[in-house]
């Protein structure tokens, strides 16, 4: 695996942060309901035939750059997809992979395990900001959910999976089970609700890399629909991508470490932490910054933290924990 280029750009970041999350989030609840109806139909048919229902797809799959969109992004609108980044030469990977594979069978369709060889799929590894393996992430409704890095015990992995499944159900209405392979459920589900043209224009701008246009388009949607959660998510992600565009990862981190009191540098480092999948590091950095600053600087750090909460989602356990930590330093 080649070293990562420390200079980030919006096209790579969209692969790591967006993953079509804005589009998928708006459709996820509807697709999940359709998938649940199909699972209920399958279960009823199986019960009538006197057999136990089976998962209609493989629980453990090998994913490549060519199959990533279908097997991970599209499938994640129906079931949480857990990604195991590994390599043949990695000793800890050989300890963790059997645990993940065993739990995939044990959970019987509550999630799908996608295995990605980082040597054979370097572009995916770079887009996800993989800095060490084994690394485990998840995609739910097209949205990246970093989980953990390094080998873990089965008990610890089970706790993480339980939390992931809960978040997938509560935030997106997505639960695993015997659903059709990626693409087939959408075909069987029938026509989807028409998308808001203004929201579609914002999504298209984001997909095209027109971050300024996407930001303005999402703001236009929110001006008419202040409670539109899909537009809020899109705006938060587009603004994050715009802020980190062209930043040098190593230079920013070095500057932040050299001067913890430089609020602007801490904000940049937190943005880069989040984009790289280090969600708790990003939150912790900003909570610490709020705790050591006063006046305008404190308010600036606090507001940036709230913006990053929007990117991850209010129900995410890491957001809940960071809100508690923020309250402690504020009060």
From TrEMBL:
Residues 54-166 form the Thioredoxin domain. The keyword Ribonucleoprotein does not apply. CDD domains: ybbN. One of its GO terms (cellular component) is cytoplasm. It holds the Pfam family Thioredoxin. The keyword Amino-acid biosynthesis does not apply. GO terms for biological process: response to stress. InterPro entries: Thioredoxin-like_sf, Thioredoxin_CS, Thioredoxin_domain, TPR-like_helical_dom_sf. Keywords: Disulfide bond, Electron transport, Redox-active center, Transport. SUPFAM superfamilies: Thioredoxin-like (SSF52833). One of its GO terms (molecular function) is protein-disulfide reductase activity. Coiled coil: none annotated. Belongs to the thioredoxin family. PANTHER family: GEO12009P1. This is Co-chaperone YbbN.
